[in-house]
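Person: Please work through this fold.
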Amino acid sequence: MKFTIDVLGIFLKVVVRVNKSTFAPLVVSTLFILLTSLLAHCARRLVQKSIKEPFVRLLLEEAIAAAELCGCCFELIIVADNFGVATYAIFLFALTIWWSLNWGEATACPYTHIEDVIEGKGDIRKALLKTWAELTGGLLVFKYVQMYWALEISETHKNKAFEDCTADLQVPVLYGVIIEGIATCMCRLASRSLSDSNPRFATAIDSFIGTSLVVAAFDYSGGYFNPVLATSLKAGCEGHTLMEHALVYWLGACAGSVLSVYVYKLPVIQKYVRGTTEVNGDSIWADKED
C-alpha cells in the first residue's frame, strides 16, 4: 500500500512542476477515483460485518468490486483522453495493486469463475450467479458516475454525463477477438505463475504486466481483458454492434482465459515456474536466499 501511495505521490509532484494549468482537472479525477475506492471499501466492510452466509457475502463483494472497477475506469477514460496513455497507465498500475490487496476472494471478472469450473473448484450455477452480481454492479455504477460528471467540476467533465459513447475497437472484429484473447491468456498465465512461485512484490509485478498489456492493446481493442468492464463502459456504443462487442470482449477474453488453464499445465511452462526459484545471484523470488 505504501508503495502505491509513493508512486502516485511522485507522479503528482511531476505533473505539478511540468504543467500547473492541467493539475486542477487531474486532481478532480484523482479525488473521484479516491472517493469511489473509499465508498467501495466502506461498503465491503459493511457487507463483511453484516452478512453471515458466505456465498451471499461473496456475491455482494463481487458486485461491489465490479462497481468499483468500472466506476474508476470510467474516470480513467477521462484521464487517458486529457492527460495521455502514460498517465492513465500510472493510475491503472496503482489501482490494480489496491484492488489486489482489498478485494479478497472477489475478482469482478467472469472468466475466473469459468476457470474454477474447468478445474473443479466451482460449479456452473455459482459461476453464473457471480457473473450476474458483477454485471449488476458494473452496469448500475454508471448512474453514480453520471451524477458526478453532471456537476462539471472541471473542464474535462464538460458535456460528458450525457455524451454518446464511441467504441474503442479500431481493428476488424476477428483481430479484436485475437487481441483480447491472447492478451487475456498472457495476463492469466502471468498471474498463475506469480501465484505459484510467490515472488517478492508479486502484486506489483502482476500489476505491471497487466498494465503493460492494456497499454499495448489500447489503440486496437481498448485493452479491457474483462467482459464485465467492457460491457459496463462500452456495450451499445457507436462503432460496433452488440454481437461484435460480445465476440470481442466476451468470447475473446473468455477463450483466452480457458486457453491459459491448459497452456499453464504444459510441461515447458511448469518447468519454467518450478525453475524460477533456482535463479543464481540476487533474487526477487521469495523462496530464494540472496
Notes: The mean pLDDT is 88.
